[in-house]
Amino acid sequence: MAPSAPTTPRSVGDILGALDDLAAKNESVSAGQVLQTFGTRTFGPAIMVPALLEITPIGAIPGVPTFLAVVVILVAAQKMIGRKTLWLPGIIANRCVSGEKLGKSADELRPIARFMDRHFHGRWKRITRAPFSQIAAGMVCLLCLTVPFLEVLPFASSVPMLAIAGFGLAVLVRDGVLMVAALAASMIALGFGLDYWNGGMSDTEQTDGMVSEETMDAAKEKAEEAGDAVRKASESAAEAVKGE
């Protein structure tokens, strides 16, 4: 099926509507198809979609939060260095999720989408432009680095991903107030991640038996794998830029 013309979303509802269309027309949907749907110049949805999917049942699949974090960090890094168009390496662009799962996840996000679209709109627009948007992209990259460590705790990786979704929405609707709120939330998420990294959470009764040497080793292994994927993708991106 030939790809349709890119859709420029104006709201979270528009994003979910486009994902529903993709899910209805395809048995499986790749990351590359999602990128083509919104266009390679639209950074907001490219950051928001993986972050929102992480808080759905898709994000409960082992390894998926880390993969989604890799996608986000690649997008955010390109935003941070000022690229005008998005690019994803084939190893990520060709990864797929079933259309049925994607459709169900989009449906489950509808209440969140209605809340976001009702409360967030263009305010303090100057803060959503460069260089502030590039600083925000750097913060998104830092948040993504905490995801592999938090993934071993149920729902913990959703904390940084919600902050990331806030940054993506702020860029999408040009809402500087939301950008500031996302920055505050990111500080909390980073503190959460650092506390876990330092072993602070393992000393609390609430996480007794959940955080162990084995889970820490597993988290570190995932982080190393994510780092390797980002490094290889960055090298491929550099080669692609040289070839342009």
UniProtKB/TrEMBL annotation:
Q: Where are its TM segments located? A: 58-77, 135-156, 176-197
Q: Does the keyword Transmembrane apply?
A: yes
Protein name stated in the entry: Exopolysaccharide biosynthesis protein
Indicate whether Coiled coil appears among the record's keywords: no
Q: What InterPro entries does the entry give? A: ExoD
Q: Where is this region: Disordered?
A: 205-244
Annotated Basic and acidic residues bias? 217-234
Q: Which UniProt keywords apply?
A: Membrane, Transmembrane, Transmembrane helix
